[in-house]
Write a structure and sequence with these properties.
This protein is α/β, with parallel strands linked by helices. It folds into 2 domains: 5-170 and 336-395, Medium-chain alcohol dehydrogenases, catalytic domain (Quinone Oxidoreductase, Chain A, domain 1), CATH 3.90.180.10; 175-331, NAD(P)-binding Rossmann-like Domain (Rossmann fold). Helices cover 29% and strands 22% of the residues. The strands form 4 sheets. Strands 3, 4, 5, 8, 9, 16 and 17 form a 7-stranded mixed beta sheet that branches. Strands 12-11-10-13-14-15 form a 6-stranded parallel beta sheet, with helices on both faces. The radius of gyration is 20 Å and the shape is globular. The relative contact order is 0.16. The mean pLDDT is 96.
């Protein structure tokens, strides 16, 4: 049996790389799994969703092994795995999905009905998502492998593009889902709230979907500068508390066709304090009548660190009447990665989508994970990619 090391949550503000158990072909409840594989992790990314837990803004328990953005090499497989071979390099959707239930059969894999006893939807290394061990580690077990895993067609080509392909596990499909559900198409005027990695992925997705103008709003000067560098229109929210006026300065109109919330429940307003519903209310103000709003930003049912008792239970002060009056469409929830990842893989392989450069991918060793978390939490315009075995560094 090999050793294994992984990133472990130790309480608010603290993570540490520790020795952890080598993966077993077992479900969280101990049931044997013949449909799984064990991966040697090639890349595993730090996500903004992980940061919510590490900040202590969820009910995550100490000892949780983090990580739901995983790309790896198959090194062992169960008896029921038929479509994958040892040595295959694969992308792991962050959704744990059985492929057999009603929602999986309709491609709504973000809300699989069987992999999480507590609610619909499972994920690796995440609070309340079924207890599946996370993949910010050297090795990880993936269940329902034939259904879940996306095999890359050529190993050498995959390693050449691995900084881009690692984004297929979550943020690129999540950004694409947000843009698609916001109705982005040829000629659309688009506003994205949040210039972090998911916001940049949503902006990149809007661009390949044919948007005429893609604006990204944020308070963070470094992230806005990076957004401008990779070709988007930065909206500096420190300059005016009237978002429509800032948009009008760019397009001549204070309305957009499509709006995307890539911020989520820890949103901040001009006062500097948290205003959990501020982005959603702004989206309703600036989106044209009969427009669409995509919400890939994370919202939670329990937030122990929220600013008021209602927000602690996931209840927000929304101007829903405004949304109703304007006949707006909203779409929320976990992204069903399998619905999009193959098409996005092809866009990467054929140089249509340089997503690593767009999101500022920075490769670091697994042992530097705690430093990566701290730097990302301070607002760095980077997406940290962990390299547990040095395979990315060697490929470069």
């Amino acid at each position: 049996m090999s050793d294994n090391r992984g990133v472990v949550y130790l309480g608010a503000g603290k993570v540490e790389v520790q020795s952890i158990g080598y993966p077993k072909f077992e479900a969280p409840d101990g049931r044997p799994i013949d449909h799984g594989v064990i991966l040697k992790v090639i890349t595993t990314n730090i996500c903004g969703s992980d940061q919510h837990m590490v900040r202590g803004r969820t009910t995550a328990s100490q000892g949780l092994v983090l990580g739901h953005e995983i790309t790896g090499e198959v090194i062992e497989k169960g008896a029921d795995v038929e479509m994958l071979d040892i040595g295959d390099i694969v992308s792991v959707p962050f959704n744990v999905a059985c492929g057999r239930c009603r929602t999986c059969k309709s491609q709504d894999t973000g809300v699989c009905l069987t992999v999480n006893p507590a609610r619909a939807g499972g994920a690796y290394g995440y609070v309340d998502m079924g207890g599946w061990i996370g993949g910010q580690a050297q090795y990880v077990m993936i269940p329902y492998a034939d259904f879940n895993l996306l095999k890359f067609p050529d190993r050498d080509r995959a390693m050449e593009k691995i900084r881009d392909l690692t984004m297929l596990s979550d943020i690129l499909p999540t950004g694409f889902h947000g843009a698609l559900k916001a109705g982005v198409g040829v000629g659309s005027i688009v506003y994205v709230a949040g210039a972090g990695p998911v916001g940049l992925a949503a902006a990149a997705s809007a661009r390949i979907l044919g948007a005429a103008v893609v604006m990204i709003g944020d308070f963070n000067k470094d992230r806005l500068a990076h957004a401008a560098k990779v070709g988007f229109e930065p909206v500096d929210l420190t300059k005016n508390d009237r978002l429509g006026d800032l948009i009008a300065d760019i397009t001549g109109s204070n309305e957009v066709d499509s709006a995307i919330d890539a911020v989520g429940f820890e949103a901040r307003g001009h006062s500097g304090g948290e205003q959990p519903a501020v982005v959603l209310n702004q989206m309703m103000e600036i989106t044209r009548a009969a427009g669409q709003i995509g919400i890939p930003g994370l919202y939670v049912t329990e937030d122990p660190g929220a600013v008021d008792s209602a927000a602690k239970q996931g209840s927000l002060s929304l101007r829903f009447g405004l949304g109703w009056a304007k006949a707006l469409s909203f779409h929320t929830g976990q992204t069903p990665v399998l619905k999009y990842n193959r098409q996005l893989m092809m866009a990467i392989l054929y140089d249509r989508l340089p997503i690593a450069d767009i999101v500022g991918a920075q490769v670091i060793p697994l042992e530097d994970a705690a430093k990566g978390y701290a730097t990302f939490d301070n607002g760095a315009a980077q997406k940290f990619v962990l390299d547990p075995h040095g395979m990315v560094a060697n490929a470069a």
